[in-house]
Specification:
Layout (H helix, E strand, L loop, with lengths): L4 E3 H8 L3 H10 L9 E3 H9 L2 H24 L5 H30 L4 H29 L9
Antiparallel strand pairs: 1-2
Helix pairs in contact: 2-3, 5-6
Length: 152
C-alpha cells in the first residue's frame, strides 16, 4: 500500500483548506507540527473530520449525563430555577421580615433609658445591611451557574 505523505502546506492546497485551520485541527488532535514535516492522509483526515470513535464516546457520555440529570430531577435532588426561587424566597423572606421588625421589638431592651435612640440606630443598621445582604446573594447567584439546576 502506497502511503502518500505531504507537508501541511501541500495538504492544505490539495484539499482546498485553509492552512491555519488545518494546522489548528492537527494540533487539537495532538499531532506535532514542524516545518517541512510530512503527514499521511489518515492523520490529516482524522484531524480534519475528528475521530469517529471519540465522537461516539462523547455522544454516549452526553447521553449518560442527560439520563443521570433526569434521574436526579425525578429523585428530587435537582430542581428548576423557578422552584429554586420559590424555595429561596420561602426561606429568606421570613428572615428579612424579622430583620425589619427588629428595631421596634429590640429598642427598649437595647437602651431602656432612650429607646427612640436605640430604634434609630437599629433602623440605620438594618437599612445599611439589607442591601449588602442582597448584593451578596445576587453575587452568589450570578457566580454559580448551577443555580438553574441546584441542589437544595
Amino acid at each position: 500500500m502506497n502511503k502518500q505523505k505531504l507537508t501541511l502546506n501541500a495538504w492544505s492546497v490539495a484539499l482546498g483548506l485553509d492552512f491555519h485551520t488545518l494546522k489548528k485541527r492537527l494540533l487539537a488532535a495532538g499531532v506535532e507540527i514542524k516545518p517541512r514535516k510530512t503527514y499521511c492522509a489518515r492523520v490529516v483526515f482524522r484531524a480534519w473530520t475528528g475521530d469517529k470513535e471519540q465522537a461516539q464516546a462523547r455522544e454516549a457520555n452526553a447521553r449518560a449525563e442527560i439520563l443521570e440529570h433526569k434521574l436526579r430531577i425525578e429523585r428530587g435532588e435537582l430542581f428548576s430555577s423557578e422552584e429554586w426561587d420559590k424555595r429561596f424566597n420561602q426561606f429568606v423572606m421570613p428572615i428579612r421580615a424579622r430583620l425589619l421588625s427588629m428595631p421596634a421589638e429590640c429598642a427598649v431592651n437595647c437602651n431602656p433609658a432612650d429607646p427612640q435612640f436605640a430604634r434609630a440606630a437599629l433602623d440605620l443598621w438594618v437599612k445599611e445591611n439589607l442591601p449588602k445582604m442582597r448584593e451578596a446573594v445576587e453575587k452568589a447567584n450570578s457566580s454559580n451557574d448551577d443555580l438553574k439546576e441546584s441542589k437544595l
